[in-house]
Amino acid sequence: MFESAELGHSISKDIWKKEVPELRENLLDAQLDLLQTKKFPVVILVAGVDCAGKGETVNILNEWMDPRHIETHALRDLTDEELERPQMYRYWRVLPPRGKIGIFIGTWYSAPLVENVYGTIKNAELDQRLERIIRFEKMLCDEGALVLKFWLHLSKDQQKKKLKGLEKDPSTRWRVTDKDWQNYKMYDTFRKVSERMLRSTSTAESPWIIVEGSDPRYRYLTIGKALHSALRQRLDAPAPPEHDEPIPPMTPSIDNLLLLNTLDLKRTIKKRDYEDQLEKLQGRLNLLTRHDQFRKLSVVVVFEGNDAAGKGGSIRRITQALDARQYRIIPVAAPTEEERAQPYLWRFWRNIPRKGRFAIFDRSWYGRVLVERVEGFCSRADWMRAYGEINDFEEQMVRNRTVVVKFWLAISQDEQLRRFKEREKIGFKRFKITEEDWRNRDKWPEYERAVCDMVDRTSTEIAPWTLVEANDKNYARIKVLKTLCERIESALGK
Amino acid sequence: MFESAELGHSISKDIWKKEVPELRENLLDAQLDLLQTKKFPVVILVAGVDCAGKGETVNILNEWMDPRHIETHALRDLTDEELERPQMYRYWRVLPPRGKIGIFIGTWYSAPLVENVYGTIKNAELDQRLERIIRFEKMLCDEGALVLKFWLHLSKDQQKKKLKGLEKDPSTRWRVTDKDWQNYKMYDTFRKVSERMLRSTSTAESPWIIVEGSDPRYRYLTIGKALHSALRQRLDAPAPPEHDEPIPPMTPSIDNLLLLNTLDLKRTIKKRDYEDQLEKLQGRLNLLTRHDQFRKLSVVVVFEGNDAAGKGGSIRRITQALDARQYRIIPVAAPTEEERAQPYLWRFWRNIPRKGRFAIFDRSWYGRVLVERVEGFCSRADWMRAYGEINDFEEQMVRNRTVVVKFWLAISQDEQLRRFKEREKIGFKRFKITEEDWRNRDKWPEYERAVCDMVDRTSTEIAPWTLVEANDKNYARIKVLKTLCERIESALGK
Question: What is the phi/psi pair of residue B146, to 5°?
Answer without folding.
Answer: -95, 115
